[in-house]
Amino acid sequence: MNTIKALIFDLDGVLVSTEHNHFLAWKRIADTLNIPFNENENELLKGLSREKSLETLLSLDNRQVSASEFEELLRVKNEAYLNSVAHLSPQDCLPGVTELIDAAKKANLKLAVGSASRNAKLILQRIELDSIMDTIVDGHAVKKTKPDPEVFLRAAKNLQLSPAECLVFEDAESGVQAALDGGFMVIGVGNPSLKNRVSRYIPSLHNFNINEYEILG
Ligand code: B16
Ligand code: MG
Questions:
Q1: Closest atom of ligand 1 relative to the 49 alpha carbon
Q2: How close is the Cα of 214 to the center of ligand 1, in Å?
Q3: I need a surface site. Which of 73, 86, 113, 151 has the fewest CB within 10 A?
Q4: 62 alpha carbon to ligand 2 midpoint, in Å?
Q5: Interatomic CA distance for residues 19 and 152, integer angstroms
Q6: What is the DSSP string of 62-96?
Q7: What is the extent of the structural domain holding 40?
């Protein structure tokens, strides 16, 4: 049995349902550019930074745009995304989130968020999970984004723990790769295509029992 001292959560798609909001905002950009884009193509973008997401979207149709167009597309995408999350509230937390966080707190586990998003702190404030986290590492805090492990390594460092003492929860291929390359145990959440990449897959955090792990909180 593994001994854990902290839980590190990806944000979009693990704690809150905002991954769909990202998808709809990118879909608007793709439609404007006449690039075919659906949920399957969106899988390639999940967990990537805003810039890498747009590069990936453009590469689906071998498109190139000028630097100024690129910046404008990023601005329009983020504006659409922010409008769509304007009324986000704690009720938008995904199933099982509140219960797992309560159980982890009772077990004296540290809690962290490791997200590619530069909107992570805003979203965490809206779902009222910002103050319960011991550290939040977002897209502003790292030089290299997922699949590079920097975001999770920085979270572990901030908690003064080794990767082996932390359990990462991820819904994206790029995030699973980042966690594995950083030496973390990783649980795939809510994305069946992760099943063959992770030692443990769960459809959601609902009914996830932290007491199956040896805890040293
Ligand atoms: P932003 P996560 C990621 O967050 C999302 O999965 C991804 O779809 C998004 O493009 C990325 O954040 C950047 O977000 O445009 O808000 O900076 O899943 O790592 O929490
Ligand atoms: Mg995610």
A1: 13
A2: 31
A3: 86
A4: 26
A5: 19
A6: T----HHHHHHHHHHHHHHHHHHTTT--GGGBPTT
A7: 19-84
**How far is residue 195's CA from residue 100's CA, in Å, rounded to a whole number?**
21
Q: Are residues 51 and 143 in the same domain?
A: no
| pLDDT, position 155 | 98
Q: Which pLDDT tens digit goes with each residue over 18-55?
A: 999 999 999 999 999 999 999 999 999 999 999 999 99
Q: How far apart are CA 78 and CA 175, in angstroms?
A: 21
Active site residues: 10, 12
157 shares its domain with 75? no
Strands 200-202 and 185-189: parallel
Q: Count Cβ atoms below 10 Å from residue 121 Cβ, excluding itself.
A: 18
Cα 19 to middle of ligand 2, angstroms: 7
* pLDDT for residue 174: 94
Residue 46's nearest CA partner among 184, 157, 190, 142 is: 190
- Measured by CA distance, the residue closest to atom 5 of ligand 1 is 47
Number of domains the chain is built from: 2
43: tokens are 């899988």
